[in-house]
Amino acid sequence: MLSTVASLAASAMLIRSVANDFLPHEVQDFLSSTFRHLSRHFCSQFTIVIEEFQGLSLNQVFEAVDVYLGTKVTLETQRVRLGKAEKGEKLETNMERNEEMMDVFENVRVKWKMICTPLQSVGLGHLNSSLRSEIRSYELICHKKHKNKVLNSYLPYILERSKIIKEENKAIKLHTSSYGRWDHNATKLDHPMTFNMLAIDLELKKELLEDLESFSKGREFYRRIGRAWKRGYLLYGPPGTGKSSLIAAMANHLNYDIYDLDLTIIQNNADLTSLLLTMPSRSILVIEDIDCTIKLENRELCFEPRDGQKMTLSGLLNFIDGLWSSCGQEHIIVFTTNHRERLDPALLRPGRMDMHVHLSYCNFSAFKQLVLSYLGISNHKLFDQIEGLLRDVEATPAEVAGKLMKSSDIDTSLQGLVEFLQSKRTELEKGSKNGNIDRHDCSNVKNDNYFLM
Ligand SMILES: Nc1ncnc2c1ncn2[C@@H]1O[C@H](COP(=O)(O)OP(=O)(O)OP(=O)(O)O)[C@@H](O)[C@H]1O
Ligand SMILES: [Mg+2]
């Protein structure tokens, strides 16, 4: 039946093209609309055209399809466009002009075509593409019985997938603020620190990774329990123990941008609020050295800026868990301090910061991680001596790392570290003879390292 109708339609089209030269316009129009209707009725194809531009702006569906199809290159693909991601060494592929590609989604086969039309042939109407030599669009072709599935499931799936793909390839940015706004030109965070390289207690590392992991996958959980999707960390410990390095490792691990907030340049509570409101989802807000930047002991007045308005501790606390709860999503806030004991108890009270992380002096376990990263070794004749020395003296990971970097020769580096630790011990002994010893016992770092509030 179908083939009979199709051949009828084909013959009709032939007759129409021959008749066109002889028939009046009205009859020609009638015939062509009838033929169009007939072919639409019997054609089993459904086609969606996705153009690169919508008016003057980029069509986000086009962009998403471009990203998604780039990851679908198969052995059958004959030509692809190649580029490099902003981050890392990864090469990115995209579908090349006038190529075709098949994709399967929940047992539905679809064909994709990238169509490129040279600009001369489409006229000057497309102002948006004045700098381009062609207009690009994607065509999706499938059986029309799958129309609903394609529109309601497949295309939303592509939008979602492309977001994830872009997220994986994006460079992490470091944002700073001025005049109550985040600067437009964020710098690329090229900090190579990862959790693998971070020399901290192994249990703590595992706990932190699990915490971050469950946070980033916690959208449904936070919605179910009616809490804002945010998590606060207070990192405390002496200078050079890895607080800033941990923040970089967190950002690299989660692929979140960092928003570095300098409280000393904030004029008033309103500035704080506006900064919060303009911070996008999947970001880490960092307030470093919170004990030094402003005097937080005083709940009323932290400092008096030029215009007479105030920024108060309660403003800051509202910023953390008042307004914070009602806007944005997937935010992490990190405070760092060298002196946790100097902070206002209101800032430390349970529930305000979810996790307090103590980063401390280098113990032997941290040393072994550092030496593996820096010198690539996991054993050496000087290790026993170093273990003993690290039990006796306080050396920060930054100090130990500095010694390990001194020479490319392993023996020289480790010998340098031994001498450095010995000189610290001599100092300590002198001090203890004079009766002014006040040192932290770093052998119990594991237990003291963190606690959940
Ligand atoms: N735990 C660590 N693991 C690996 N490297 C570390 C660690 N701690 C410090 N370092 C090294 O020392 C350098 C300084 O550390 P970092 O800036 O993270 O310390 P900090 O605790 O933020 O210090 P401050 O309190 O002065 O801000 C880092 O760039 C890194 O090379
Ligand atoms: Mg720091």
Short description:
The chain is of the alpha/beta class and 453 residues long. The protein is built from 16 helices and 17 strands.
Shape: elongated
Number of structurally distinct domains: 3
- For the CA atoms, what is the radius of gyration? 32 Å
Kindly report the CATH topology of the largest domain.
Answer: Rossmann fold
**Full CATH superfamily name of the largest domain:** P-loop containing nucleotide triphosphate hydrolases
Provide the low-confidence segments as ranges.
Answer: 1-6, 122-131, 296-306, 437-453
Q: Distance between the terminal alpha carbons, to the nearest Å?
A: 74 Å
Helix percentage? 40-55%
Largest sheet: 9 strands, mixed
Q: Helical region count?
A: 16
The CATH architecture of the largest domain: 3-Layer(aba) Sandwich
* Number of distinct beta strands: 17
